[in-house]
Amino acid sequence: MDPELEAFIPLLPKTDLTDPVTARKSFAERAAARPAPDTADMEIEDRTVPADPDVAVRIYRPRQAQGAIVWLHGGGMVFGDLDTEHPWAARIADGSGAVVISVDYRRAPEHRFPAALDDAYAVLSWTAERAAELGIDPERIAVGGHSAGAGLAAAVALRARAEQGPPIRFQLLNEPGLDDRQETWSQLHFTDTPWHDRDKITTAWRHYLGSAPATPYAAPARAADLSGLPPAYIATAEFDPVRDEGIGYALRLLQAGVSVELHQWPGTFHGSQAILSAEVSQRQIADLAAALRRALTA
C-alpha cells in the first residue's frame, strides 16, 4: 500500500449499502466537508434534459472548450448525486479543458436497471442534438465516470453502437465496475480491502438488478463482442476487487481492435484518489484529465 494512503485507512468511514438512505446521507455529509475546487475559470449551469422522466445535469464549461464528456458518478448505483460529484466533475473540467456534463441518474434500489442507463443515454443523445447550443463539436463527445459510473459509461457505449446512436469519441473509465459475476482473482481474494470490498459489491449489484438476470447493458463484461467501440482509457487500483475486470475488459477491447490506454495504479485502493493530499492521488486525477484532453483535441 502507498504509505500516504495507508495512513488514512483507519480514518475511512464505514459505508453500509444495505441501508441506502443512510448511506446517501452519510456520503453527502462527507462530500460537503471536502475542500471546494477552484471554479473561477469556468461557467457552471444546472439544466434539465427532457426525457421520461426528465434528467437533471450540471454543466461545467471551461473557457474555449470544444469537446465534452457525459460524466457519470460512482456510488454503486445506490448513492451519489450532482452535489457529491461536484469536486470531481470540476477537477476533470479544469484539467481537461472539456465541457463536463455531470448526470444525476436515477439510483437503485428504488430505480433498478435499466433506469440509470436510460437516463445516461438520454443525456448523451441530448448532448449530441444540442451540440451547437452547448458550444461543442458533436464529433468530440466522450462518455466516462468512476466506479459504477464507469461501468455505466461502458454500457452507454455498447448501446450507442447497437442502436447506431450518437458517435462517441472516447471512453474514460476510472476503476470501472463491469461484472456482476464477481469471479475474477481480485474479486475472490480482496474480500476486506479499504472502502470497497466483495460484500459491498454483492449488495450493490443486488440493489441494481433485483431478481432480473444481468445483460451486457447492466454488466458490460458480459458483452460477447467489443469490436467497433470507442477508444478507451481504463484506470485500475491495485488493491481493489474490481481491478481484474477492468484489466480484463481492456485486454478484450484490445483484442477486438479497439485502442486502449491501461493504467494500473500501484499501492492504491478503490476511490483512494479522494485522498487529495497523497501524491499518487494527484497523479491519478491529473492523468484522467490529461487522457481526456488528448482524446478530444487529437
UniProtKB/TrEMBL annotation:
Keywords: Hydrolase. Residues 69-272 form the Alpha/beta hydrolase fold-3 domain. Transmembrane segments: none annotated. GO terms for molecular function: hydrolase activity. Pfam families: Abhydrolase_3. This is Alpha/beta hydrolase. It comes from Microtetraspora malaysiensis. The lineage of its organism: Bacteria, Bacillati, Actinomycetota, Actinomycetes, Streptosporangiales.
